[in-house]
Amino acid sequence: MDQTPVDQAQARAWLATAVDEARLSLAEGGVPVGAALYGTDGALWGRGRNRRVQEGDPSLHAETSAFRAAGRQRTYRGTTMVTTLSPCWYCSGLVRQFGISRVVVGEARTFQGGHDWLAEHGVEVVILDDPACATMMRDFVAARPELWHEDIGLD
Known about the structure:
Elements: H1 8-27, E1 34-38, E2 44-49, H2 52-55, H3 62-70, E3 80-85, H4 89-98, E4 102-107, H5 115-120, E5 124-127, H6 131-143, H7 145-151
Parallel strand pairs: 3-4, 4-5
Antiparallel strand pairs: 1-2, 1-3
């Protein structure tokens, strides 16, 4: 789908919503990943955080939570998923399944995820390499390696 590329200022403003969600998850004892889904007009459709630990539900990744909060829509084409961390394969599949057009990634240092695969399949991927996102994840992985490994499927 043809769409105007997102400018860095807009992408960073959207990322702030996802970062707020990641911080909430961390405060709740969960994995600090947050996400938000924005409509074609830039309106916030849904926001969410990784709540696997808090809810005991392995499917409640941040992107899934934001997607669910957005509710049923006629189409997701032209929308933007913003996430603090490169999306895992599960969340990358959600983006492809529902035709989300763009993914803005806070950081991909901690975890590469599926963003290259998404780009190969026509999804616009914007990696912001945000230092605050990288620090939050690095600190979490150092403090809770067992939870991190469980979350990304290494155990």
